[in-house]
Each structure stands twice: as structure tokens, then as C-alpha cells.
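Entry 14. Structure prediction run on the chain below.
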Amino acid sequence: MSSLSSQSPQPRGQDGQDSSVGELLSTVTSDVQQLFRQEVELAKAEVRQEATKAGRAAGMYGGAGFAGYMVALLLTLAAMFGLANVMDLGWAALIVTAIWAVIGLILYRRGRERMRTVSPKPEQTIQTLKEDAQWARHPTR
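Output returned:
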């Protein structure tokens, strides 16, 4: 029996000839680089999605603040003068101010709840990259 028959078969290239270790390493390296590039693109997409959510929540904060200011200003004046017919103007202003403070607190809490749902990191991509790195260190496992 010859020593060639006891060896395992060699990998073959696309042209049917034996591939060198360098060619195989080059192919694996290229594939890993492409995989990492795709993972980075996925991470960027996830970050953009989370930034959009954060922008909407911040817009709600701003909108709530501006709307609250305008409404408070105009309704406070109307309510104060309406209540001034029944009580002193100072007490009327204090009552109306307390009502708008409660409304402002409710809007703030809703905005804060929405902001808490925003994830600062692309969790799924980070986990996948960790798995890819683990595989790259130990490809036979």
C-alpha cells in the first residue's frame, strides 16, 4: 500500500486542482471580512432605528413643552379672569397654575416612559458578533 492512499483527500480548487493552504486561508479570511462588514452594516441599521425612536421621543418632549406653554398661557389668562368673577384674582391664578403643573407632570412622565424603551446599543448584532468571534477562534466546535 502506498503512503498516498492513507492520507485524507486534499481540498480541490474551482479548477479541480489541489488548493494550497494559502488559497484556503485567503478564502476564509475574505469570507470572515465580508461577514464582519455585513454585521457592521446591520449594527448601523439598528442604531439608526433606535436614533429614530429617540428623536421621536425627544420631539414629544419638545412638542409637549411648547404646547404646554401656549395652552397654559392662554387658558390661564382665560381661567383667571373667569374665576376672578367669583374670588380674588390672586387665588384664581394660583388654582389655574396648579392645574397646569399637574398636566405638565403627566406629559413629562409619558415622554420619560417612551425614552426608556430606546435601546442605546444594537443588542442583536453585538451578540452575533460575539458568536462569530467565538466561531473564528474555534471553527470546529
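The helical segments are 21-83, 89-116, 123-137.
Filed with the rest of this week's runs.
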